[in-house]
């Protein structure tokens, strides 16, 4: 793991690497992290131009460098090295690696990044990585393998490519909700991230106009343990930021719980608001406060 990731990771907004206009709009908005995309948002023919555009954009926005990640192409294709060679001299804030099959992919990326950091006078190990898991059938079986993986600062998951990987016609049921396999993918990502000690980041909502559904879903996955969400349109960012920001009431309650246990250091359980608190409640209170306190 590395300590150089952005402190706040609620919203991760994709911007196509071949569109300076969209990249500029994204970095000027409220997204905690902007992901300059060289993978799905860019056609094969446009990839060389997109690499150059992303590198130029990074050089022109060094004040925002920490929140500018680049999604490179997956390691099982021919473009990853070219992507990294183009963008690393411009010092991106981090790298998103898609279609990760398991820990070995992160270790391979670490070796690439280490060589490029040395070549470009960048502090070794200072480029953080977020991985996109569950995009292939194989990766579903390796979500728990990432504890201690080099540079890892977050894990997220994907449903669209997973559907392609298993030959499904859709990843949703008739009511529009994710089917069982994709809910399983969400759970495995969450468990894998917890095992690795990094935040879990929810996958995209493709319908960027439906902000009410986005709000409901973001709040639901936050309650389940997710700490942020991917976005594909600037309109989604404010909704995501609000959903993943603890409320004043939640913060006050967490502080009360911490104070109660501090006042009763030998107690295993404590009465509170007509119920009982035990040590897991204290742990959850500390985790919530860690999201808002330095």
Offer a few descriptive terms.
alpha/beta; two-stranded antiparallel sheet; 294 residues; eight-stranded parallel barrel; 15% strand; CoA ester lyase; metal-binding
Verbal overview:
41% of the residues lie in helices and 15% in strands. A hairpin with a 2-residue loop joins strand 9 (269-272) and strand 10. The protein has ten helices and ten strands. Helix 2 (47-60) packs parallel to helix 3 (80-87) and helix 9 (248-263) crosses helix 10. The strands form two sheets. Strands 1-2-3-4-5-6-7-8 form an eight-stranded parallel barrel, surrounded by five helices. A two-stranded antiparallel ribbon has the order 9-10. It is an alpha/beta fold. The chain has helices at 20-27, 47-60, 80-87, 103-119, 160-166, 180-196, 211-224, 237-243, 248-263, 279-290; strands at residues 11-16, 33-37, 68-71, 94-97, 129-133, 152-157, 200-202, 228-231, 269-272, 275-278. Its cofactor is Mg(2+). Pfam families: HpcH_HpaI. GO terms for molecular function: lyase activity.
């Amino acid at each position: 793991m590395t300590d150089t990731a952005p402190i706040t990771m609620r919203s991760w907004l994709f911007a196509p690497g071949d569109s300076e206009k969209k990249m500029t709009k994204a970095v000027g908005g409220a997204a905690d992290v902007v992901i300059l995309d060289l993978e799905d948002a860019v056609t094969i023919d446009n990839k060389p131009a997109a690499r150059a555009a992303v590198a130029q954009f990074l050089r022109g926005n060094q004040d925002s460098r920490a929140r500018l990640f680049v999604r490179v192409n997956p390691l099982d294709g021919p473009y990853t090295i070219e992507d990294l060679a183009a963008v690393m001299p411009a010092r991106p804030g981090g790298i998103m690696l898609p279609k990760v099959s398991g820990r070995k992919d992160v270790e391979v990326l670490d070796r690439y990044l280490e060589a490029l950091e040395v070549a470009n006078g960048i502090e070794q190990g200072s480029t953080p990585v977020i991985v996109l898991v569950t995009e292939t059938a194989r990766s579903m079986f390796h979500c728990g393998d990432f504890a201690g993986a080099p540079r890892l600062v977050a894990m997220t998951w994907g449903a669209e490519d997973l559907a392609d990987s298993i030959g499904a016609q859709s990843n949703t049921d008739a009511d529009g909700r994710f089917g069982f396999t994709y809910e399983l993918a969400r759970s495995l990502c969450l468990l894998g991230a917890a095992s690795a000690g990094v935040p879990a980041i929810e996958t995209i909502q493709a319908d960027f106009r439906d902000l009410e559904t986005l709000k409901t879903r973001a709040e639901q996955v936050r309650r389940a343990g997710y700490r942020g969400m991917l976005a594909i349109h600037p309109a989604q960012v404010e909704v995501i930021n609000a959903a993943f920001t603890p409320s004043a009431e939640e913060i006050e309650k967490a502080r009360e719980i911490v104070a109660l246990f501090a006042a009763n250091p030998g107690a295993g359980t404590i009465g509170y608001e007509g119920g009982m608190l035990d040590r897991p409640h204290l742990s959850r209170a500390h985790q919530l406060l860690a999201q808002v306190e330095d």
